[in-house]
Design a protein that fits this description.
By secondary structure, the chain is α/β, with parallel strands linked by helices. The protein is built from nine helices and seven strands; from the N terminus they run βαβαβαβαβααβαααβ. The protein has a single domain, classed as Rossmann fold, CATH 3.40.50. Bound molecules: NADP nicotinamide-adenine-dinucleotide phosphate (NAP).
Length: 248
């Protein structure tokens, strides 16, 4: 099992859901986990859960779309911890609607948080990592960014964009020993998908070769691999954690 030593990982949107599962898995692997989310209260609760279990965790609140606030936040992280080994761009939202009914606000909110937020945080993190000559950036995309989905044109565009963004950053950052990869979860059981009617999830399960939804920890274990030296020759890739739903 991977053991991190003096390893600092910042995970956006990690007060709950997949982000929190990623935080738990890194913490259990010995990393110092920096929880970041929009609600200060949710951040505090998440950090307490980890520290009560004997793990090393610190909390930061902020909005990934606020460039000035993120500048401050990354500066504070470096003041507090001296370095940043890994950034996981996980904060994300959905605002589903059929394209003909989609409001511009629904389009913009999703593109802003899922794509522009990842751009902002990646830029701030790379400034630190290029000086360190070390780093791993992991973008949480989605299978929807690979195969599209009716009613999710905004979300698909944001995640497809994130996959293309991942490849460009991987090419730009490689000479500084900073790797950038994307993880594309399929149907994972979280609050985001809990609202789906049972009939819909049963239909999804039928088309998943492994015949079940995934767990947040399925995603977290891949992130640990992509952050560790075990993946030191892997960059620019998008790896699906989807029970075989997408194959290419
Ligand atoms: P989630 O449970 O809704 O968690 C997302 C977290 O991000 C929430 O705590 C949310 O805070 C926070 N957040 C939202 N906007 C933010 C902002 N502007 N700045 C900082 N934090 C913000 O979602 P999830 O299901 O764990 O999904 C996590 C990631 O995996 C997302 O990128 C999602 O697209 C991706 N994904 C999920 C699935 C799935 O099946 N669940 C599948 C594929 C990909 P608030 O709720 O307080 O706003």
């Amino acid at each position: 099992m991977t053991r991190f030593n003096d390893y600092k990982v910042l995970i956006t949107g990690s007060a709950r859901g997949i982000g929190f599962a990623i935080a738990e898995r890194f913490a259990a692997s010995g990393a110092t986990v920096l929880i970041m989310d929009i609600s200060a209260e949710a951040v505090q609760t998440a950090v307490k859960k980890l520290t009560d279990s004997g793990f090393i965790a610190f909390g930061y609140s902020g909005n990934v779309t606020d460039s000035a606030a993120m500048e401050e936040l990354f500066a504070k992280i470096i003041r507090d911890h001296g370095k940043l080994d890994c950034l996981i761009n996980n904060a994300g939202i959905t605002r589903d609607n059929l394209l003909l009914r989609m409001k511009e606000e629904e389009w913009s909110a999703v593109l802003d948080i899922n794509l522009k937020g990842s751009f902002i945080c990646t830029q701030k993190a790379f400034k630190v990592m290029m000086k360190q000559r070390f780093g791993s950036i992991i973008n949480i995309a989605s299978v929807i960014g690979i195969m599209g989905n009716a009613g999710q044109a905004n979300y698909a565009a944001s995640k497809g964009g994130l996959i293309a963004f991942t490849k460009s950053c991987a090419k730009e950052f490689a000479s500084r020993n900073v790797r950038v990869n994307a993880v594309a979860p399929g149907f994972i059981v979280t609050e985001m998908t809990a609202t789906l009617p049972e009939a819909v999830t049963a239909e999804y399960a039928k088309v998943i070769p492994l015949s079940r939804m995934g767990s947040p920890d399925d995603v977290a274990r891949l992130c640990v691999f992509l952050a560790s030296d075990d993946s030191s020759y892997i960059t620019g890739q998008t790896i699906a954690v989807d029970g075989g739903l997408t194959m290419h």
